Amino acid sequence: MSLIMKVFLLQILAFLLFGGGLHCEASTRRHTFVVREASYTRLCSTKNILTVNGQFPGPTIYAKKGETIIVDVYNRGKENVTIHWHGVKMPKYPWTDGPEYITQCPIPPGSKFSQKIILSSEEGTLWWHAHSDWTRATVHGAIIIYPKNGTKHPFPKPNAEVPIILGEWWKSDVNAVLEEMLATGTDPNVSDSYLINGQPGDLHPCSKSGTFKLMVDHGKTYLLRIINAALQDILFFSIAKHKMTVVGTDGSYTKPLTRDYITISPGQTFDVLLEANQRPDHYYMAAKAYSSAQGVAYDNTTTTAIVQYRGYYTPSSPPSLPHLPGHNDTNASVHFTSSLRSLADAEHPCNVPLNIGTKLIYTLSQNTFPCANDSCLGSTRLATSINNISFQSPTIDILQAYYYNISGVYGDKFPSVPPLVFDFTAEDPPSKYDTPRNGTEVRVLEYNSTVEIVFQGTNLLAGTDHPMHLHGYSFYVVGWGFGNFDKNRDPLRYNLVDPPLQNTIAVPKKGWATIRFKASNPGMLQALMSSITHTKNKTLETATLHIKEIIFLNITIC
Ligand SMILES: *[C@@H]1O[C@H](CO)[C@@H](O)[C@H](O)[C@H]1NC(C)=O
Ligand SMILES: *[C@@H]1O[C@H](CO)[C@@H](O)[C@H](O)[C@H]1NC(C)=O
Ligand SMILES: *[C@@H]1O[C@H](CO)[C@@H](O)[C@H](O)[C@H]1NC(C)=O
Ligand SMILES: *[C@@H]1O[C@H](CO)[C@@H](O)[C@H](O)[C@H]1NC(C)=O
Ligand SMILES: *[C@@H]1O[C@H](CO)[C@@H](O)[C@H](O)[C@H]1NC(C)=O
Ligand SMILES: *[C@@H]1O[C@H](CO)[C@@H](O)[C@H](O)[C@H]1NC(C)=O
Ligand SMILES: *[C@@H]1O[C@H](CO)[C@@H](O)[C@H](O)[C@H]1NC(C)=O
Ligand SMILES: *[C@@H]1O[C@H](CO)[C@@H](O)[C@H](O)[C@H]1NC(C)=O
Ligand SMILES: *[C@@H]1O[C@H](CO)[C@@H](O)[C@H](O)[C@H]1NC(C)=O
Ligand SMILES: *[C@@H]1O[C@H](CO)[C@@H](O)[C@H](O)[C@H]1NC(C)=O
Ligand SMILES: *[C@@H]1O[C@H](CO)[C@@H](O)[C@H](O)[C@H]1NC(C)=O
Ligand SMILES: CC(=O)N[C@H]1CO[C@H](CO)[C@@H](O)[C@@H]1O
C-alpha cells in the first residue's frame, strides 16, 4: 500500500471515529441505554461498576436546541435506577425527568422505561446521570446541545470540542461506602481519587497509560465542555500556563470571562474556550477539591490529564502543573463564581423577574438525629435539612400522588421562611438547634408567579458550602453574600441587569445566595441540596416545590 493511500485511509478512519460518529449521532433521535455492570480497573484494582452500555463515563447525547429525544432505558443491573436529564427543563412534561419518587418510580432490574428528553431554551452543555442512591457515581454522561440550524454560538467557531467530565473513584464498591455510611451514621469514606474523563491521571499509581490526553495544534481554539459529575465536591480546575475563557454555563451563554482557574460545583457545567497559544510542549490540566468545612475529611488528591501540542519538540519533563487554589480558599471559590454574567444581548435577552410575587427564605443546615438503640456508631446520625425539615422520601412518587389525588403521600405545608430565626452564621450556633424534624412537605406555587428564593446557609454542626440544584428550571442568580441575609440592605445590591442563568449553584459557606425565576413550567420541581446525607437512606436533601397547573400525562404508579 502506498503512503498516500495509508494517509487517506487514516483520514477516513479519523472521520468515522470523530467527525462521522458525531454527525451521525446528532441526527439520531432515539438512543438505547442499557444499564449494566462492567468491570473497570483503576488505581491498581478491579471492580464492577454500574454503567450505561458498558461505558464509563457514559455515552454523550448530541442534540440541537429545541429537539426531543427518546432514550429507551433497559435496567440490566441489580438495583433500581432512574436517569435524570440534569438542567433540561422538560416543559410541561416532568414525567420522565428521572428524580426517583419525585417525578417517577424507579426502574426495577429487568425492566425497560422510555424516557423523553424535551429540550427547549437550553443551548450548550448539560449532562445526564442516574438519580437513585449513589448510582450516579458511575452512571453519567454529557448532553451537548448545538444551536438550531441557521443560528450560531455567540463566539468564534472553535476548531474542535472536547467533553471534560470530572468524576470521583472509590476503590471499594460505592454501595459498600453508602451502606457503611448508613450503618455508622457518619460521613462516608472520601473517594480515592478524582477523575478526568474516567481516569485518575498519572500522578496516581497504575494510571499512566490511561491518562486522558488532548492533542492540540498550535494556534487553534478548543471548546472544553466541562462537567462536574463528582458526588459532592466543589472542584478547582486549571490548565498549566493557559488561560481559559468561560462562554457558557448550565446550558446558557455568559459574557466571556477569562481566568486561570474555574470553580465548578457538583452538577454544574462550563463551556470554556482554550487557545493553544503557548510554546509547543505538554501541559497538565488538573482538578482538586475546594473543601471548606473545618475538620471534615476530604479527598485531597489531584487528578490530571494532558494537553499535548502536535509537532516535533523535546517535551519538558515532567509537564508543568497548574497552580490551583488551596483546598479551603473560599475567596478563590467565590471570586470566580461571582464574576459570572449572562450574555444579556438582543439575541439572548435577560428575563430576570423584577416584580416578585412569592418570596421564600430557605435555610440549609447540617443536622443530627439522635441514634436510637445503638443503631449507629455514635450517639447521633448525620442529616441535613431545608427550613428545618429533613426530607423523607415517599414510596409513591409525589407527582403521581398529585395527579391521581392520592392523599397521605405528601403535605403542602413546606414553610416559606425559617421556622426559627437565630444567628444562622454565628461561629457556634446553639447545639439545641442541631435536630431537625422529618417531613415530606411541598410548597405550592401559583402558575406563572414570579418567585425569589434566598438560600441561607447555617453554621449548625459545621458550616460548609451547599450546592443547590432546581429541577425543571434555570434561575437567575441575582445576589449573594456572607453572613445572614438582610432583607432591607442586601436586595439593594442585586444584579438585575445581567445575572447568570444557572441550574446549579454553590451557596457560600457562612453565606447566602438569591435566585429568581418565573414559575411557568408546571410539575413537581425539587430544590436539591446535593451534599451527601444520611436520613432514610437518601443521599439528597430536598425542598419540593409544586407548580399548580394541570399536568398532561400519566404513567404507571410504583
Ligand atoms: C424498586 O422500584 C419499585 C417500583 O418501581 C418499587 O416497588 C421497589 O420497592 C423498589 N425497590 C427498592 C429496593 O427500593
Ligand atoms: C439542519 O441541517 C441539517 C444539515 O445541515 C439537515 O440535515 C437538517 O434536516 C436540518 N434541520 C432542520 C430542522 O432544518
Ligand atoms: C472506609 O475506610 C476505613 C478506614 O480506612 C476502612 O477500614 C473501611 O474498610 C472503608 N470502607 C469501605 C466501604 O471502603
Ligand atoms: C492527604 O491526606 C492524607 C491523610 O488523610 C495524608 O496522609 C496526605 O499527606 C495528604 N496529602 C496531601 C497532598 O495533603
Ligand atoms: C486553610 O488550611 C490551612 C492548612 O492547610 C490553614 O493553615 C489555614 O488556616 C486554613 N485557612 C482557613 C481560612 O481556614
Ligand atoms: C481573592 O481571589 C482573587 C482571585 O484568586 C484574588 O485576585 C484576590 O486578590 C483575592 N482576594 C483576597 C482578599 O485574598
Ligand atoms: C429501642 O428499643 C426499645 C426496647 O427494645 C424499643 O421499645 C424501642 O421501640 C426501640 N426504639 C426504636 C426507635 O427503635
Ligand atoms: C427544628 O424542629 C425541631 C422539632 O420540631 C425543633 O425541636 C427545633 O427547635 C427546630 N429547629 C429549628 C432551628 O427550627
Ligand atoms: C403564563 O405565562 C405565559 C407566558 O409566559 C402565557 O402565555 C400564559 O398565558 C400565562 N398563563 C396564565 C394562566 O397566566
Ligand atoms: C427521622 O427519620 C430518621 C431516619 O429515618 C430517623 O433516624 C429519626 O429518628 C427520625 N426523627 C424523628 C424525629 O422522627
Ligand atoms: C435503610 O437501610 C438500612 C440498612 O441498609 C435498611 O435496613 C433499612 O430497611 C433501609 N430503610 C429504608 C426505609 O429503606
Ligand atoms: C394521555 C396519556 O398518555 N394517557 C395514558 C395514561 O396511561 C394509560 C395506561 O398506561 C395509557 O393507556 C394512556 O395512553
From TrEMBL:
Pfam families recorded: Cu-oxidase, Cu-oxidase_2, Cu-oxidase_3
Catalytic activity: 4 hydroquinone + O2 = 4 benzosemiquinone + 2 H2O
Keywords, in A-Z order: Apoplast, Copper, Glycoprotein, Lignin degradation, Metal-binding, Oxidoreductase, Repeat, Secreted, Signal
GO terms under biological process: lignin catabolic process
GO cellular component: apoplast
Cofactor note as given: Binds 4 Cu cations per monomer.
E.C. numbers: 1.10.3.2
Subcellular location: Secreted, Extracellular space, Apoplast
Signal peptide: 1-24
Enzyme class, UniProt record, top EC level: oxidoreductase
Required cofactor(s): Cu cation
Domain Plastocyanin-like residues, every copy: 35-149, 161-311, 415-524
Protein family (similarity comment): Belongs to the multicopper oxidase family.
Function description: Lignin degradation and detoxification of lignin-derived products.
NCBIfam families: laccase
PANTHER family for this protein: LACCASE (PTHR11709:SF487), MULTI-COPPER OXIDASE (PTHR11709)
Name recorded for this polypeptide: Laccase
The species this protein was found in: Vitis rotundifolia
Lineage: Eukaryota, Viridiplantae, Streptophyta, Embryophyta, Tracheophyta
